TrEMBL record:
Residues 20-253 form the Asl1-like glycosyl hydrolase catalytic domain. This is Glycoside hydrolase family protein. It comes from the Bacteria. PANTHER family: ALKALI-SENSITIVE LINKAGE PROTEIN 1.
Length: 268
């Protein structure tokens, strides 16, 4: 059984974690059009002192070691993200687990009684008969397990938004469920130094506009708000510097999500 989803929820979100001064939640709360965030954990973002929490927190059960952790949120939680890149290596950003293990643990995620997203595989592990996600979904459907929406990651090496849209449509055709894009950016991870804020600014504007008009894309979240250390340096995909000043990518992102929110209000 699929759980219903409230109408007119804001699509735009972000993946983020605490910065050095534990102040990033204030930026999340103050950014117009930003409807939700997640931090790859089951507990909400930490913030020093009193801070309004109007932006929805979506918890994640990152990997096998998190399945028994409590969800902690001051706001009511409505959705839960499943394992993060289980087809990758164990440790750090990726959960790393077999399909059989993920299927065995899945009932523990179902017991939260929340709308539940699929494991978010790497791009190459999402489509195809032998892909990690297809094999997981075949077993889940065969055992009557619940997966309410498909969570995906997409990193464009060339910034082509048309290819991104075609890939999203293929995911929707393959699994017949709503889609959440929980990580996206313009970067080739084999050449991270080639990423530029100018390229990501253009990609953010076009990709957000594209996803906002696709009815089956329920939510999307940029990767990431923070500088992300990778191979000794932070590639130019971050929206914010550690002091919360906007990068060119961040400026384009905030303008795009604000415009999308305004269009949504107008259409409603």
């Amino acid at each position: 059984m699929l759980l219903a989803w409230p109408a007119a929820a804001q699509k735009a979100g972000v993946g983020a974690w605490e910065n050095s001064s534990n102040s990033i939640l204030s930026w999340i709360e103050d950014t117009p059009g930003l409807g939700w965030y997640y931090n790859w954990r089951p507990d909400q973002m930490y913030h020093r002192g009193r801070q309004n929490r109007s932006v929805e927190f979506v918890p994640m059960i990152h990997g096998a070691g998190d399945v028994n952790k409590r969800i902690r949120s001051d706001r009511k939680v409505t959705a839960l993200l499943g394992f993060n890149e289980p087809d990758g290596h164990t440790g750090g950003h990726q959960a790393g687990m077999t399909v059989d293990k993920a299927v065995k643990l899945w009932p523990k995620l179902e017991r939260h009684g929340l709308r539940l997203g699929s494991p978010a595989t790497t791009q190459s592990g999402t489509l195809g008969r032998n892909s990690w996600l297809r094999r997981f979904m075949d077993q889940a459907e065969g055992k009557g397990l619940r997966v309410d929406f498909i969570a995906v990651h997409y990193y464009s090496e060339d910034g082509n938004v048309g290819d991104f849209e075609r890939w999203l449509r293929a995911v929707h055709r393959e699994y017949g469920r709503p889609v959440w894009v929980t990580e996206f950016a313009h970067i080739d991870w084999s050449r991270p130094a080639a990423a530029s804020h100018a390229g990501n600014a253009a990609f953010a504007r076009k990709a957000i506009a594209m996803m906002e008009r696709l009815p089956f894309v329920e939510r999307h979240a940029w990767f990431a708000a923070n500088p992300y250390p990778w191979q000794g340096r932070a590639p130019q995909i971050n929206l914010l510097r550690d002091d919360l000043t906007l990068t060119p990518s961040g400026d384009a992102f905030t303008r795009a999500v604000s415009r999308a929110a305004g269009l949504q209000v107008a259409s409603n």
